[in-house]
C-alpha cells in the first residue's frame, strides 16, 4: 500500500495541477475517484412509453440484490439530475433500469438515451428483497411497479425448480403492459410461476375491499408471503386488506410514492447556496431541491419524495415551509429536506 501511494504522489507531480485520475478519465470515462459512473450498453423499448436501459458500471459498483433500487444521474442542459429507479436485472448482473416517460428526467432517459452514453450511479439500496428461505410468494404489481418484481422473478424462477410464485399484474392496456411477452414465456417454461394479468381499461381494477375477488385470483393468498409495488392507491388498499385479515406482517410494500405537496400563497424568496456560490429567486411552491438544480447547484437527492432523507441540508438562516404539512422550519443549523420544502423569504443554505 505504501508503494502504491508513493507511485501516486510521483505521478501527481507530473500531472499537476490535474490529478492522475483526471487523465485516466479521458482514456476511460468510467474511471473516476469522485463519482461512480456507468456506460449504457443497450436500450430496449418496453410497451408504448417505456425503455429498459442496460448499464455497465465502473469499478466500485456493489452488485444489487433482487428488488433493490439505485439513484441514477444524467446531465440535462449541463445540469446533473438525479432520480431513483428500481433495478430490473437479475441479482448480481450489471444493472438495468426500466423507465416510463413520466416527468422531465424519465422522459429524457426514455427519449434520448443511446448506447455509449455515460450515466452517474449511486450504490443500490432498499429492503424490498426476496426472503432468505424458500416459501410460496404472491407478487401484486401495477404499471411500472412490476420493475423490482421482474428482478426477483428473473433471479428466483430460473434457479429454483421448486419456486412457487403467483404474479398478479395490472396495466391500463395490453400495449402498455411491461415485460408481457417475457412473462408469458416464463410462465410457459417454469411451472412454478403463475401469471394473472388484468387490463384495467376494460376489466377494471382488482377490488381489495372484496375478498372474493382476491380469492379468485389466488385462493391460498393467506399462506403466501406477499409483495406489492405500484401506485399509492394499490399500496393503501392492500395494506388495509392484509391488516383486516389479521396478517399485516405477511405483506411487504415498496412505498415509493411522491409526497403530497400543497400549493402556497407565500412569495418565496432569494435562496443563497453558500458553498456553491450561487443564488436563485424561488416562489413559495417550488421545492428548494428543484430551485437549486435549475441554478446549477449539485444537490444531494434520492427518492425526491420526502422518504429517504438523502437530501438533508443544514439551514444556515431563514425560514422554509414543509410543502406537505405547511409547517415552518427556522432553527439555525436544522437539517431540512430540500425535496419537500420551499423558501419563505430569504434563505441561506450551507450547500
TrEMBL record:
The prosthetic group or cofactor this protein requires is: FAD
- One GO MF term: 2 iron, 2 sulfur cluster binding
All residue ranges annotated as the 2Fe-2S ferredoxin-type domain in the record: 269-351
- Is Cytoplasm one of the keywords UniProt gives this record? no
- Give the UniProt keywords, A-Z: 2Fe-2S, FAD, Flavoprotein, Iron, Iron-sulfur, Metal-binding, Oxidoreductase
Q: Which domain of life is it from?
A: Bacteria
Q: Which residues form a coiled coil?
A: none
Looking up SUPFAM superfamilies in the UniProt record yields: 2Fe-2S ferredoxin-like, Ferredoxin reductase-like, C-terminal NADP-linked domain, Riboflavin synthase domain-like
Q: What are the boundaries of the signal sequence?
A: none
Query: Residue limits of the FAD-binding FR-type domain?
Result: 33-131
Q: What is this protein called?
A: Ferredoxin-NADP reductase
* Organism the protein comes from: Calidifontibacter indicus
Amino acid at each position: 500500500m505504501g508503494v502504491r501511494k508513493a507511485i501516486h504522489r510521483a505521478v501527481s507531480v507530473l500531472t499537476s495541477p490535474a490529478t492522475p485520475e483526471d487523465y485516466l478519465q479521458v482514456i476511460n470515462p468510467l474511471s473516476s475517484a469522485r463519482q461512480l459512473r456507468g456506460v449504457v450498453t443497450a436500450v430496449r423499448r418496453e410497451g408504448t412509453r417505456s425503455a429498459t436501459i442496460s448499464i455497465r458500471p465502473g469499478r466500485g459498483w456493489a452488485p444489487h440484490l433482487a428488488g433493490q433500487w439505485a439513484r441514477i444521474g444524467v446531465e440535462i442542459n449541463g445540469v446533473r439530475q438525479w432520480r431513483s429507479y428500481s433495478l430490473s436485472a437479475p441479482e448480481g448482473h450489471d444493472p438495468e433500469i426500466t423507465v416510463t416517460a413520466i416527468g422531465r428526467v424519465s422522459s429524457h432517459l426514455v427519449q434520448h438515451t443511446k448506447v455509449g452514453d455515460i450515466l452517474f450511479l449511486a450504490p443500490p439500496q432498499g429492503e424490498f428483497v426476496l426472503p432468505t428461505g424458500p416459501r410460496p410468494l404472491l407478487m401484486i404489481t401495477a404499471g411500472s411497479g412490476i420493475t423490482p418484481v421482474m428482478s426477483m422473478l428473473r433471479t428466483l424462477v430460473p434457479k429454483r425448480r421448486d419456486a412457487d410464485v403467483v404474479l398478479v399484474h395490472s396495466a391500463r392496456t395490453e400495449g402498455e403492459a411491461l415485460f408481457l411477452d417475457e412473462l408469458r414465456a416464463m410462465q410457459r417454461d417454469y411451472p412454478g410461476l403463475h401469471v394473472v394479468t388484468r387490463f384495467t381499461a376494460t376489466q377494471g381494477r382488482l377490488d381489495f375491499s372484496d375478498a372474493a375477488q382476491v380469492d379468485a385470483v389466488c385462493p391460498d393468498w393467506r399462506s403466501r408471503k406477499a409483495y406489492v409495488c405500484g401506485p399509492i392507491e394499490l399500496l393503501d388498499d392492500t395494506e388495509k386488506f392484509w391488516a383486516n385479515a389479521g396478517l399485516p406482517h405477511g405483506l411487504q410494500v415498496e412505498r415509493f410514492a411522491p409526497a403530497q405537496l400543497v400549493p402556497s400563497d407565500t412569495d418565496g424568496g432569494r435562496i443563497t447556496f453558500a458553498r456553491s456560490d450561487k443564488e436563485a429567486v424561488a416562489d413559495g411552491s417550488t421545492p428548494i431541491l428543484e430551485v437549486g438544480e435549475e441554478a446549477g447547484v449539485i444537490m444531494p437527492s434520492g427518492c425526491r419524495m420526502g422518504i429517504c432523507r438523502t437530501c438533508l441540508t443544514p439551514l444556515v438562516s431563514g425560514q422554509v415551509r414543509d410543502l406537505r404539512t405547511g409547517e415552518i422550519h427556522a432553527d439555525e443549523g436544522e437539517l431540512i429536506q430540500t425535496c419537500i420544502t420551499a423558501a419563505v423569504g430569504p434563505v441561506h443554505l450551507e450547500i
